[in-house]
Automatic annotation (TrEMBL):
InterPro entries hit by this protein: Gryzun, TPC11, TPR-like_helical_dom_sf
Protein name: Trafficking protein particle complex subunit 11
Origin: domain of life: Eukaryota
PANTHER family noted in UniProt: FOIE GRAS, TRAFFICKING PROTEIN PARTICLE COMPLEX SUBUNIT 11
Residue ranges of every copy of the Gryzun putative trafficking through Golgi domain listed in the record: 954-1064
Pfam families reported for this sequence: Foie-gras_1 (PF11817), Gryzun (PF07919)
Domain Trafficking protein particle complex subunit: 260-514
GO-annotated cellular components: cytoplasm
UniProt source species: Pediculus humanus subsp. corporis
């Protein structure tokens, strides 16, 4: 055990106090039932704050301390014994349960009773005079019935034999519902445990009146601490807090001296830990924080021996760290912390005290090199009381001190303190603090702690870890423009990189240190520059000022071993020693001209610097292209604080870039002339990282910004990082001819006349025609647009490509593209002609010609339909099996004449034609704009419906008079309501009659209903006719039957004469209205009667 651990908080103090309940009699190794029971008990901490532990019946428990009858002459030798908390947490159970397999119906029940008694006696002997409560639990297969008198008698007999009370015997059936039985049993055991701790508290309270504060002040503290601890075991947190509060009050009253100050502070820290823990549990965080601050305030000046001041700092560090831990646990349990008060502050204070401890250790212990031969620290792990010295255990403050032994003890403590790894402790505490400040969004405080951690890694010679941290935090301070802090960190980072022989980081930090904003004098910058050049020339750099002299030889060996390394790429920032700007000379370039990039470089190095290569990276449509120039072709040597510009010319080598933007991605400067030590400095132009510090200044500080006096124009150079590639002016013309507007659904021809007016032939010419989508709302229009090249062998596409090949000079090619639109919207077609043009032996240049074609689409004609009765009267509904006429009208909207080739209707399945031969009335008609035509179709519907029924689809095949391509257009006919028909009536009558010549009239009646139909038929009289037949008759018609009525009519005068009216009266009133409606709709009401023939004169004379 290290000396530093003597001031740690013991695990039994920091663990959650749980009542200890013992179980014995379970053989978990060989008995599966016992193993299952133990597993259920072991997981009970989720429901109860208890600790179940297995004991054997012969377990050796700690001996019982003899009871004192009086405390008159007793003088305590310490505050708190080291084994007391551990004893009550892990060794002395509050309740112990003897588990025994015993069924009342077992054949060997008597023998089993004797075995149970034997084990119980052995257990009592092991416990001795401990006040632990004993219970017996019988493991049985089934639960006894409530009225089982036999089981009750045997239970009483067992209690008498075992000498236990009936309430100490319990049954545990291990059949079904084992979990529930054990849960109830656990509740009983917990109640017994609380009763045990309550009795222990009463015993301690009985000693209160026997104590005096003159010689027994320690006992006041000890007893109150024990009362608080036992109350915690009893789960009585409120009383526990009260007892701990009294204990702290008593310990503050204790007289302090050199011999007891460590012990008193240690126990005061224990009590404060318990108090703060309970206050957080009781949701009193403000009281916990205030109590801890008062505790620190009271004891921070109780330093003890000056020679052991590091010990006091260690104690303070432990106090802050422990409080931070319980504060953090409270936050995890739901407590809300804020930025100004959270656990991170206490971990940070713990780290600061640990740093001070290290400092005083180096100061006070530097002369101690040997450990005393008498070993004054022997027995440190076996001390009886917390916080005492092993060379004077149990010595009271009134006793004289052995000066020689005391000096040896102090020397031993100093020697041991030299062996402590302080850096590990400090780094651990700083890490916990950093996590908290990161959680509560305190970035600057976190950065400060990271710097301290990096310094600690550096001092502990872990240079790799320190270098990693410096690499991260340097850029944070740079972003916030803390130039002085950044310069200090750069010095330490350079030292780390130098010792670790990290080539990349050393070069990177050197370049940053040479920047204009680094706070180094000229001499220091010149030394850094010379070291940088030495590293690039495969040499060792001069040691940095902060590098310890004893590790310089080892560092030089590391640099020698790192001669062979891979090329290094460094992302340069805007405030480094090299500043770069790049721009295009103009925003637009044609595809056949040189693209020029101008690059400006300014060096802030204290001496001339030369690069071996310069490259510029351009973002293109097919990726990133690199264009480089070596130092052989271009002078890449730069003078301090002077600006040098360079021009790069390159060709556009990809036709895919035409019409698109190109962008300057980055500029790469290669530093060093050895492949083993090349440093590639990358300046990201596209991301804007090359802006000078003046450009980063906000508008309100423009008049106070930093400028380089040697060349202020560099800051005014604007980066033009984007340029557009456009095609060169083309002499190939594309002329579009078409006769708009286009008609809906027709294949509309568009002619493209391509004429080559270039001085030479063009090759590889391709014409692409596609729909031009101007926005996402045009997507549905694009889907309703089709293109093709051949209507007869057509595969409709959304675009077409026509390969034209070579077009000779002054020649014209004609391409016809057919367009069909299925929606009435204007179509925008984009035509793109691409070709290769070769002039004067130069490589072929890809050229493009784009044309936008707008094609409006209109509706060719308008179709309307209506339902007519057989008398050509408009009706709103029809009847099943009753004929009606579908009247379809076409009205021409097209400005071009329309030729109707055919018209037809495809009826639905339930719709039938009344006639077998149905022909189109409009076939062959040519209609102009504003004209119209009509089709009529006699139809009948077989079945009625409650919902409107669709009649079918009307199709017209048409074309323009100037075109032979026939287009088919279909229109859905309107719906009609169809009611069921009860009675069907047909009339048979000649087309006309003659005056005074009889004519026959016949009515056919059909009963379409499923019921017997009774009709009262009446033929009304007429002045124009005499008739013979039944004038009034009662008709009964069976379902599905028919009936014929015949009348002979004798016309009396000519003309359009009204027929005698047939009136039906149904015996059922609901049919009467329908019958008369059908008669009025379907039966003729008039007939033409021709006059009598006149007899000639000659015939009349001969007759006379």
């Amino acid at each position: 055990m290290a000396v530093s651990d003597a001031l740690d908080f013991p695990p039994e103090l920091c663990s959650k106090p749980s009542a200890l309940i013992g179980l014995c009699g379970l053989d978990i190794q060989s008995n599966p039932l016992h193993k299952n029971i133990w597993d259920v008990f072991r997981t009970s901490h989720e429901r109860f704050s208890v600790n179940f532990k297995l004991f054997s019946t012969s377990h050796c428990f700690p001996p019982v301390k003899p009871k004192r009858s009086t405390y008159d002459w007793y003088i305590p030798k310490g505050l708190l014994k080291r084994n007391w908390m551990k004893k009550h947490l892990l060794e002395i159970p509050s309740v112990i349960a003897l588990m025994f397999d015993l069924d009342w119906d077992d054949a060997n029940v008597e023998q089993l009773k004797l075995d149970c008694v034997s084990q119980l006696q052995s257990l009592r002997a092991s416990l001795g005079s401990h006040a632990t409560k004993i219970v017996v639990i019988l493991l049985q297969k089934t639960a006894p019935l409530p009225d089982d008198t036999k089981a009750s008698e045997r239970a009483k007999s067992l209690c008498a034999t075992c000498d236990i009370e009936p309430h100490q015997l319990y049954l545990l059936p291990h059949g079904d519902h084992l979990q529930g039985y054990i849960s109830r049993l656990e509740s009983v055991l917990c109640d017994l445990a609380q009763s045990y701790y309550h009795e222990e508290i009463k015993l301690i309270k009985q000693h209160k009146d026997q104590l005096n504060k003159t010689n027994q002040q320690y006992l006041f503290v000890r007893h109150q601490f024990k009362l608080g601890f036992l109350s915690e075991l009893k789960q009585d947190n409120h009383n526990a807090k009260k007892y701990y509060d009294k204990a702290y009050t008593f310990i503050k009253e204790t007289r302090l001296s050199e011999s007891n100050i460590v012990e008193v502070k240690l126990i005061a820290g224990f009590i404060t830990y318990k108090l703060c823990y309970l206050m957080f549990k009781l949701n009193e965080p403000r009281d916990a924080i205030r109590n801890f601050k008062l505790h620190i305030e009271f004891y921070k000046d109780k330093k003890g021996s000056k020679e052991l001041y590091f010990e006091h700092l260690n104690w303070l560090s432990k106090q802050y760290s422990a409080f931070g831990d319980i504060f953090n646990e409270a936050v995890k349990d739901g407590l809300t912390a804020v930025q100004t008060q959270h656990p991170g502050f206490y971990f940070e204070l713990a780290a600061q005290n640990a740093i001070e401890r290290k400092k005083y250790c180096l100061e006070l212990c530097k002369d101690v090199t040997t450990y005393p031969q008498s070993d004054p620290l022997m027995g440190l792990n076996s001390l009886e009381f917390y916080g005492q010295r092993p060379w004077r255990p149990g010595k009271l403050s009134a006793e004289p001190i052995n000066t020689a032994l005391e000096l040896e003890g102090i020397t031993a403590l100093k020697y041991r303190e030299n062996l402590v790894n302080h850096s590990t402790i400090i780094i651990h505490l700083l890490g916990k603090a950093i996590c908290q400040f990161k959680t509560y969004k305190c970035p600057r405080m976190r950065l400060q702690l990271v710097v301290q951690m990096a310094d600690e890694y550096f001092s502990s010679k872990e240079y790799g870890q320190a270098l990693t941290l410096f690499s991260h935090i340097l850029w944070d301070y740079k972003e916030e423009k803390w130039w002085l802090l950044q310069s200090k960190l750069l010095t330490r980072a350079l030292s780390c990189a130098c010792v670790a022989a990290n080539v990349q980081d050393y070069i990177h930090f050197s370049l940053e240190a040479l920047g204009p904003l680094a706070k180094f004098d000229t001499e220091r910058k010149l030394k850094i520059f010379n070291n940088l050049m030495a590293v690039l020339n495969l040499k060792c750099p001069e040691p940095e000022p902060e590098v310890p002299s004893q590790i310089i030889p080892e560092a030089q060996k590391s640099w020698e071993a790192s001669r062979k390394s891979n090329p290094i790429t460094i992302e340069m920032s805007s405030k480094s020693c090299i500043e770069v700007k790049a721009r295009f000379l103009k925003p637009i370039f044609t595809v056949d001209e040189d693209i020029t990039v101008e690059i400006y470089v300014r060096s802030h190095c204290p001496d001339f610097i030369e690069f071996s290569n310069m490259s510029v990276f351009i973002n293109k449509s097919n990726g990133v292209a690199e264009y480089s120039v070596s130092s052989d072709k271009l002078n890449l040597k730069f003078e301090p604080e002077r600006v040098k510009n360079s021009l790069y010319n390159f060709k556009c080598d990809s036709a895919a870039d035409i019409g698109k933007m190109i962008q300057i991605n980055s500029v790469l400067l290669t530093l060093g002339f050895f492949k083993e030590r090349e440093a590639k400095l990358k300046f990201n132009i596209a991301n804007g990282t090359t802006e000078s510090c003046a450009e980063k200044t906000t508008d309100e500080f423009q008049y106070f910004r930093w400028l380089t006096l040697s060349d202020p124009t560099f800051d005014k150079i604007e980066n033009l990082t984007n340029a557009k590639i456009v095609a060169s002016e083309s002499k190939v013309k594309v002329q579009v001819k078409h006769n708009s507007p286009a008609l809906l659904s027709e294949w509309y021809p568009i002619e493209f006349h391509i004429t080559n007016d270039e001085d030479v032939s063009v090759s590889d010419s391709v014409l692409e025609v596609k729909y031009h989508q101007s926005g996402p709302e045009d997507l549905t229009i694009e889907q309703s647009t089709q293109l093709c090249l051949d209507v007869k062998n057509c595969v409709p596409l959304s675009f077409v490509n026509v390969t034209l090949g070579e077009i000779p000079q002054k020649e014209t090619k004609v391409i016809v593209v057919y367009l069909r639109g299925h929606r009435i919207e204007e179509r925008n077609l984009i035509t793109k002609l691409s070709y290769n043009l070769m002039k004067d032996g130069i490589a072929p240049t890809k050229s493009f010609v784009e044309t936008l074609v707008k094609v409006p689409i209109i509706q060719p004609f308008e179709v309307s339909a209506e339902i007519l009765s057989m008398k050509f009267e408009k009706i709103e509904k029809c009847f099943s099996r009753n004929p009606f006429i579908l009247n379809v009208t076409i009205r021409i909207l097209s400005p071009w004449p329309i030729n109707i080739h055919e018209s037809s209707i495809k009826p639905c399945n339930y719709v039938k034609f009344c006639d077998q031969d149905v022909t189109s009335h409009l076939a062959g008609a040519v209609l102009n704009q504003g004209e119209g035509g009509t089709d009529m179709f006699p139809l009948t519907i077989d079945e009625s419906s409650d919902k409107p029924l669709a009649l079918g689809i009307y199709t017209v095949k048409w074309s323009r008079t100037s075109s032979k391509e026939i287009t088919s257009s279909s229109v859905t006919m309107p719906t009609v309501r169809c009611d069921p028909t009860v009675l069907g009536v047909e009339m048979n009558l000649p087309a006309h009659g003659w005056v005074r010549k009889p004519m026959e009239l016949e009515y056919n009646l059909f009963n379409y209903s499923n019921n017997l139909l009774q009709l009262d038929l009446l033929m009304e009289s007429s002045d124009a006719f005499m008739f013979a037949g039944q004038k009034q008759v009662l008709i009964r018609m069976l379902p599905g039957s028919n009936k014929k009525l015949k009348y002979n009519l004798y016309p009396l005068f000519p003309g359009l004469v009204a027929l005698p009216r047939l009136v039906f009266r149904s015996m059922a009133d609901e049919f009467a209205e329908q019958l008369n409606t059908m008669i009025d709709r379907n039966l003729l009401s008039h007939v033409y009667i021709m006059p009598q023939e006149k007899i000639g004169t000659e015939e009349l004379t001969s007759t006379e």
